From TrEMBL:
Organism domain of life: Archaea
UniProt keyword annotations, A-Z: 4Fe-4S, DNA damage, DNA repair, Hydrolase, Iron, Iron-sulfur, Metal-binding
Signal peptide per UniProt: none
Residue ranges of the region described as Disordered: 1-23
Uracil-DNA glycosylase-like domain location: 30-152
InterPro entries: UDG_Type-4/5, Uracil-DNA_glycosylase-like, Uracil-DNA_glycosylase-like_sf
Name of the molecule in the record: Uracil-DNA glycosylase
Compositionally biased tracts (Polar residues): 1-11
Organism: Haloterrigena alkaliphila
Length: 210
């Protein structure tokens, strides 16, 4: 049984390699949640999925709140919406640094932060990766599965599906602002189905048990 740490926010003490924010603004939104989790929720950056004020991923923005509601529906989250208590779920971003309001990180900035994200993902060592939106899904499929070349990045089609990775099971999540009538229910149903079986994987073999 792994026991990474009991720290909830930034459990590995990461320090952002650059800062594009003003003197009174938050520099970065670090990983947050249960560092011993089996489920790792992965977003894009704070400007999209939230946390610029709270410091907690998947809060404040429309997309972040929608994901938070799903986490509550399946029993991952409880307590305050801006600083929930998470069990069996860890949340982080591909790009943890806060870009200036209204701006998007550059490709170079994404590249600089890639090693930080990768190190944290491997330290958490979750079984199920839950990338949200095109950017996070593309990165996870490219880096942690052998499937990216075989799959179109059609998030409507990939949403709430199961893709076997290199020691991970990947469940892509369509950007919540683009959800249609049944997308929320499909995601909740998929997560409940996974939780209802033995979802553990043998690391490095990419074989799902159960």
């Amino acid at each position: 049984m792994k026991n990474v740490t009991e720290r909830t926010s930034n459990p590995f003490g990461l320090r952002p390699p650059f800062d594009r924010t003003g003197p009174d603004e938050r520099t970065a939104v670090f990983g947050y949640g249960d560092a011993n989790a089996d489920f790792h929720l992965i977003g894009d950056h704070p400007g999209v999925h939230g946390g610029r004020r709270s410091g907690v991923p998947f809060t404040e923005t429309e997309s972040g709140v929608a994901i938070g509601e799903v986490a509550r529906a399946v029993g991952f989250a409880e307590g305050p919406t801006d600083r929930p208590t998470l069990e069996n779920l860890y949340c982080s971003y591909v790009h943890m640094c806060c870009p200036p309001e209204g701006e998007t990180p550059t490709e170079e900035e994404y590249a600089i932060l890639e090693r930080f994200f990768d190190a944290e993902l491997r330290a958490i060592n979750a079984h199920i990766l839950l990338p949200v939106g095109e950017r996070a899904t593309d990165h996870v499929l490219r880096e942690y599965t052998t499937q990216r070349g075989r799959l179109d990045l059609d998030m409507a089609a990939l949403h709430a599906s199961e893709i076997r990775g290199r020691g991970f099971l990947v469940v892509p999540i369509r950007e919540p602002t683009e959800w249609e009538d049944t997308d929320r229910e499909a995601l909740v149903a998929r997560l409940e189905a996974i939780l209802g079986r033995d979802y553990r994987q043998t690391k490095g073999v990419a074989t799902r048990v159960g």
